[in-house]
Design goal:
Helices cover 1% and strands 40% of the residues. It is mainly beta. It starts with 18 loop residues before the first strand and ends in a 13-residue tail after the last strand.
């Protein structure tokens, strides 16, 4: 995940108020947290996903820690990008108790699994209720993606990386006939194990019908703006550039022809038919991007409508106003002091960040601190 600048430059961006991170759960720590979520109908808790296979239900502010799920027995989290990678509550969870998980299972080397579960009578995920929806073989151990989320259309989205290794050696990113290197869109309500929404771009042929967008290297977290429905995705780069994409139906985001908006390992390359990133930054500022949520909370009114993202290596935090075109990223925090592995939206719309290395969960709060702007850089 990584560092750097943005694509175009016009007027200077509006300055948001100074922000900082504050511990959200007291002194509680988790083992390699990769996700923070809230459940429909549950305004009192956060759910913290551990890479090794556990999910904890906790109350913001600390206390009330409850083991919601333990699926460690079916997960291979050996490679550093494997494990329990995604949690999504069905929009009707308060009524139907349906929960979806994305994880890597033992294979040769790994298999990405999308599965449905039910919450049992005691309020825990019933591990024996698992119903596997989709299995995708991974040729290598890294670039598994794995994030899942329901969109405002009621469909379930699943992000998958290009299968791993360096440079996408099998060309998965530009091959819509494989699920790797793509963002999938599934109807988990119409039939079992799932149905293909009729407006998916390849529903009638030309590629795998589950695909919504492709040309991705390793989508590390995506999120829907709860107000506009826009879908923002952070795609981890390889050697030089990290990118933020605004995902649209059938979009080809360029990997491995391009890394960010730049030709990958070639002085010249095709641009026709490829969608430019909305923002990018170079490895001068980091090495692995972590997306990201659009802020729609109440604690920081001037930040409403800003998309927030961070870098795992440098710990920097950026944001930009999604209403402006072209977008102009602002460096909100030079050093967050954490290894940001995931953003999450709490029951009240406030934004939380998981610290993969330290194990803490932090909340974005106002602060009396200087706001830094990302240094300008060319394409």
């Amino acid at each position: 995940m990584a560092a750097a600048c943005l694509l175009a430059a016009a007027a200077a961006p509006a300055s948001p108020p100074p922000v900082t991170l504050a511990p959200a759960l007291g002194q509680q720590r988790f083992a390699r947290p990769l996700g923070v979520a809230s459940a429909p109908g549950d305004p009192r808790h956060l759910y913290v996903v551990e890479q090794g296979g556990r999910i904890w239900r906790v109350a913001p502010g600390g206390g009330d820690r409850f083991l919601f799920a333990d699926v460690r027995d079916r997960i291979d989290d050996g490679p550093h990008e494997a494990g329990l990678l995604g949690l999504a509550f069905h929009p009707g969870y308060a009524r139907n108790r349906r929960v979806f998980l994305s994880y890597t299972a033992p294979g040769d080397p790994l298999v990405s699994i999308l599965a449905e579960y039910r919450t049992g009578a005691r309020g825990r995920l019933a591990a024996d209720s698992e119903r596997v929806l989709l299995r995708v073989a991974q040729p290598y151990g890294n670039h598994n993606g794995g994030h899942i989320a329901f969109g405002p259309d009621g469909y379930l989205y699943w992000g998958l990386g290009d299968g791993g290794a360096a440079g996408d050696p099998h060309g998965h990113g530009q091959n819509p006939r494989t699920l790797l290197g793509s963002l999938l869109r599934l109807d988990v309500d119409a039939s079992r194990p799932y149905a293909v929404p009729p407006d998916n771009p390849f529903a009638r042929g030309g590629g795998r019908p589950e695909i919504w967008a492709f040309g991705l290297r390793n989508p590390w977290r995506f999120a829907f703006d709860p107000e506009t429905g826009a879908l923002w995705l952070a795609d981890v780069g390889q050697d030089a550039w990290e990118e933020i994409d605004l995902i649209r139906r059938g979009g080809n985001y360029g990997w491995n022809i391009r890394e960010g908006a730049h030709c990958f390992r070639a002085p010249r390359c095709r641009r026709a038919g490829l969608t430019d990133p909305v923002a990018e930054y170079s490895h001068e500022y980091g090495c692995s991007v972590t997306g990201g949520e659009v802020y729609r909370g109440r604690a920081i009114p001037a930040l409403r409508g800003w998309y927030l993202y961070a870098d795992y290596c440098s710990s920097r935090l950026w944001g930009f106003d999604t209403a402006r075109r072209p977008v102009r990223p602002v460096l909100l925090l030079e050093h967050t002091g954490i290894r940001p592995s995931a953003f999450g939206r709490g029951p009240g719309g406030e934004i939380y960040l998981a610290d993969h290395a330290g194990g803490g969960i932090h909340r974005l709060v106002p602060a009396d601190a200087r706001v830094f702007q990302v240094p300008a850089a060319g394409r």
